[in-house]
């Protein structure tokens, strides 16, 4: 048996195995064999530990990625949550300033949702929210578009590089898609679940903040609900800091034409 074979067999033995060497050669040779054996065992153990550390590191990184994803997701609907929306809005606002591209925001509220909960219970209400969120997510066409649950039964859709006409088209698709679900709601428009949508588009500047865009879309949403629900209300195409938006209402075709007589509404705050 060669020295290498001997070392291989000894290295494969248990680390706590007692070892007695009966050698015909001198003490120096015996020490050399023992030292080589110790080095091999140490290197093997080091490789095992390194592999274990690498495995644990990968597992930890994956767990952190999952936790981060959860921290940006709404647990009930699976949509992005308010935190994710706020960060996305901040980033898109700065990008819109640089690119000088229009930035649009849709704010959506499920009509008569409290009555839906009172009629069918909160579990059915949760399912309704999740169904609406999935429907809205299906309308997203571009990577930069983002649907988020803003709070309660309210959702938002952020549309970078989208002008007035484009955002109106998206809002109408959203409204029609939810209505076509035909989820029953005795208190709702036509006895079904519908949504009201406020829409605003802005040319972002350093002189204004994203709060202007959110406030305009929120005001438009309020007027959509006040003027009959199941419709889209638009703020002006370009919102200038310090001005009060003039709002226009787009009623759905299935609600009877172009909307109520007071379709042109003004909001002063």
| Chain-averaged pLDDT | 81
- SSE string: HHHEHHEEHEHEEE
Which fold name is given in CATH as the topology of the largest domain? Alpha-Beta Plaits
Give the count of helical stretches: 7
Q: In CATH terms, what is the architecture of the largest domain?
A: 2-Layer Sandwich
Strand residue percentage: 5-15%
Which residues form runs of ≥5 with pLDDT under 50? 240-249, 254-269
Span between N and C termini? 94 Å
Structure classification: alpha+beta
Indicate the CATH class of the largest domain.
Alpha Beta
Query: Tell me about the biggest sheet?
Result: 7 strands, mixed
CATH homologous superfamily grouping of the largest domain: Reverse transcriptase/Diguanylate cyclase domain
| Structural shape | elongated
**What is the number of independent domains?**
2
The value of Rg in angstroms is 32 Å
- Strand elements, count: 7
């Amino acid at each position: 048996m060669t020295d290498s074979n001997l070392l291989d067999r000894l290295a494969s033995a248990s680390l706590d195995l007692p070892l007695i060497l009966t050698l015909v050669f001198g003490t120096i040779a015996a020490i050399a064999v023992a030292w080589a054996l110790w080095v091999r065992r140490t290197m093997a153990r080091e490789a095992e530990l390194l592999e274990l550390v690498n495995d644990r590191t990968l597992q930890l990184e994956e767990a952190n990625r999952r936790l981060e994803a959860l921290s940006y997701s709404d647990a009930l609907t699976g949509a992005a949550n308010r935190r994710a929306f706020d960060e996305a809005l901040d980033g898109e606002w700065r990008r819109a300033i640089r690119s000088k591209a229009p930035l649009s925001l849709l704010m959506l509220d499920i009509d008569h949702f409290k009555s839906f909960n009172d009629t069918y219970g909160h579990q059915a209400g949760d399912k309704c929210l999740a169904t609406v969120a999935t429907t809205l997510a299906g309308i997203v066409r571009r990577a930069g578009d983002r649907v988020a649950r803003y709070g309660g039964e309210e959702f938002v859709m952020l549309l970078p590089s989208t002008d007035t006409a484009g955002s109106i088209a998206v809002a109408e698709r959203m409204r029609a898609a939810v209505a076509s679900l035909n989820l029953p709601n005795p208190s709702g428009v036509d006895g079904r679940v519908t949504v009201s949508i406020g829409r605003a588009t802005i040319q972002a500047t350093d002189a204004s903040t994203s709060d202007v865009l959110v406030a305009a879309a929120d005001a438009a949403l309020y007027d959509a609900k006040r003027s009959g629900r199941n419709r889209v209300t638009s703020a002006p195409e370009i919102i200038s800091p310090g001005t009060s938006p003039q709002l226009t209402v787009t009623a759905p075709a299935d609600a009877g034409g172009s909307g109520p007589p007071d379709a042109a509404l003004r909001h002063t705050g």
